[in-house]
Design goal:
Number of helices: 5
Number of strands: 16
Strand content: 25-35%
Largest sheet: 6 strands, antiparallel
Oligomer: single chain
Length: 253
């Protein structure tokens, strides 16, 4: 994602959301119920409907040494050392909060409160190690399919959903195995209906145009969603906690 426009007078940020390409960051999906598994939508051929929503794996930093990613942020010099030892700067979630803090919409007290909350969390309660939210694997049982012998088991992945009242925005935390290492990783997504997006022609009932983007507006009425999202990020793991505390220090300095 990238900031399309920033209005210091209106205290408003417009973020461009791609509608036609499913990236590792955003996808248009469809589901009937909140806790239902969503399925990707081919937006160039299938019309948007009321069941369509944006799944946004929002980030909070970029690595300074990666020029392509660094080019996406407007804050290239708000630097800190991440929990992984790499030099980073603010991006997306932290980038938005930075501006709203500078505009006086987000207060010093609010950020300090989040920092104190995270500082006092017991590391054993963080989601990547909390025994109440571990991936469950059932006992294997023999199964024969097409005359081939298998061991059949079920794997259950924890899913935590938080609603940002009174908005139609939710956050989903999915706890999955790490792709290239041993252990688990909680993944955080912002999800909201496509009706929250701004376009010249309403989306519902039509397909997306070629390389079309839509606008998601962040303003004083909904910035608290992102502030609360920052707090939630900090409970995912020890590394997330350290990063968020460092980010708050950068914003407050």
């Amino acid at each position: 994602m990238f900031i399309k426009t920033r209005d210091d007078n209106k205290k408003e940020i417009v973020v461009a959301i791609p509608l036609t390409k499913g990236t590792e960051k955003t996808r248009i999906k469809k589901r009937s119920m909140l806790n239902e598994y969503g399925f990707p939508v081919a937006t160039r051929t299938d019309a948007f409907c009321q069941k369509c929503y944006v799944e946004w794996q929002i980030g909070y930093d970029v690595v300074i040494a990666e020029p392509d990613k660094l080019s996406r942020t407007t804050l290239k010099n708000q630097r800190f050392i991440g929990a992984n030892g790499k030099e980073k700067t603010l991006y997306e979630l932290s980038e938005y909060i930075y501006y709203f803090y500078k505009w006086g919409v987000v207060s010093n007290e609010e950020l300090t409160s989040i920092r104190n909350f995270l500082e006092n969390i017991d590391l054993d309660l963080l989601l990547d190690v909390n025994k109440d939210y571990m991936i469950e694997r059932g006992h294997p049982i023999p199964k024969k399919l097409f005359n081939i012998d298998f061991e059949y088991t079920q794997v259950k992945y924890p899913l935590l959903i938080h609603k940002f009242d009174p908005f139609e925005i939710i956050t989903e935390i999915k706890i999955t195995e790490k792709q290239y290492a041993v252990g688990v990783q909680p993944m955080l997504y912002f999800c909201f209906p496509v009706t929250e997006l701004k376009t010249t022609v309403p989306l519902v009932g039509r397909v997306a145009g070629k390389k079309e983007n839509a606008d998601f507006v962040i303003n004083p009425s909904n910035i608290q969603v992102f502030l609360e999202g920052l707090k939630i990020f900090g409970i995912l793991s020890a590394n997330h906690k350290k990063d968020i505390i460092s980010i708050i220090d950068v914003i407050l300095r």
